[in-house]
Amino acid sequence: MDNLVTANIRQRPIRSLVSIAGVALGVALVMLFTGLSSGMSNDLQRRSSNLRAEIMFTRKGSMEGLTGSPANLNTKYAEELRKVEGVESAIPVILYVSPGSRGFGFQQIEGVDWNDFAAMNHMTLSSGREPVANDEVVIDETKAQTDKLQVGAVLKLFGEKPYRVVGVYSPEAGSRVKMSLTAMQDALQAVDKCTYVLVKAKNSAEQEALAKRIDAALPGNKIQYTRDVFTSVEKKIPALKTFLRVLVGLSAVVSTLVIMLAMYTTITERTREIGILKALGASKWYIISEIEKEALLISFLGLIAGFVVSWGAGFLIHKAYGLIFEFGWSWMLVAAAIGLLGGLVGAIYPALRAANLDPVMALSYD
Description:
- This protein is an alpha+beta fold.
- It has helices at residues 4-11, 13-48, 76-82, 114-121, 141-146, 181-188, 207-217, 226-229, 233-236, 239-269, 271-279, 284-321, 329-346, 348-355, 359-363; strands at residues 55-58, 73-74, 87-99, 106-112, 124-128, 136-140, 154-157, 161-170, 177-180, 193-194, 196-201, 222-225.
- Strand 7 and strand 8 form a beta hairpin.
- It is elongated.
- The mean pLDDT is 82.
């Protein structure tokens, strides 16, 4: 009889492809979800690390989550903050969260005094100028490249209201889309209001002492360090880690069941061939090893297919929706373990069943 490992795959291509696809599905799900989580988290941290302000001053109840950002703080607090000893600058900001420009996810928009904000965070315009009119915005270079936008392009924000891109800036910091503070206040009908005030200390090493002085001067408000506010997505959404663990577990179960079904079908279809092998003197270990080798080969092919699908899907989703995927080696190893170990474990029962077949009964099997 031809080699059980390769012959069974060649002779039954449809069943083999379905088995490979089942393993690939589990691997691709793990890679896509973990890659999206890492990409969003790293992108958020990368942009927030470019903010030079050490302290965020706001009202209690604001900035509680990714989308909690009401404009409920009077901008006059910025003037009071500048009077506190140790404060270099204080800039009011409105943060608004809206649905993604491509109909998927969400995007953040900031209303700021561009000149002050750019000076604080060492940002420059690579093209165009600062936003002045109420229908003008500036975007960072990443958004310009991802969405294929340039100076003069039109963005629809706050529903379907058109805004003209008048500048592209770098480096990326905070939200990717910015307009003037007055423009944002006008759009939200929040005159003299902001979401928070960014506070830059004269000496960043003394930010803890500065925070205490601010709290003493303006009690009853919320004072946070920017290093704590802009944490990773996994910390912003505590249940995300649990979700990823459940996803990994389900992927392992799917891969195991797919291989078990495929190998069980193999044993049923090749009962006579296995009987011939046993009649010729093949040991139980030889039968088991052949079944396990076939399962391992199917799992390996599924693993490769899963990686290819996840990378291809990540690229297409990024192009279509602008979502960022970053595939880490640690999760690749987890996905590999799921695919390969799931195949080996799933083939154990069919392999043992094949090894324990009675040669006489197997040869008479029709």
